[in-house]
Design brief:
By secondary structure, the protein is an alpha+beta fold. The chain is built from 3 helices and 5 strands.
Length: about 120
Amino acid sequence: MRTLGDAGVRAAVVLVEIARVERLLRLHEARFLARAFTVEEREACFRRRDPARHLAARLAAKLAARRALGSPGFPLRSLNVSASRDGAPRLDITPPPAASTFLSLSHDGGMAAAAVVFEGAPE
């Protein structure tokens, strides 16, 4: 089993306040959605009862992925968060990294959280 101290493993955890996403939707909806989310993500979130909560979790995942990749300027729309067939969260990156990707999402108490781990990532 590898640990975070082992070479080739990069990880990041990000929290996003759901109220912040609600404000962005209220003030800059079209621009915010177009800059940060793929069409697939927008459709998936707006099918849900509380879209802001689901958008916040996806935004946290994208920010965590950028941090773990060490690429703060990586375009958010090049990252797509979806659900696999078994319902587990999935992160697709264009172009795909030379690493295995692991994603965990959560939301509670007004916050959304995401943890992203890349295993086998170049140093």
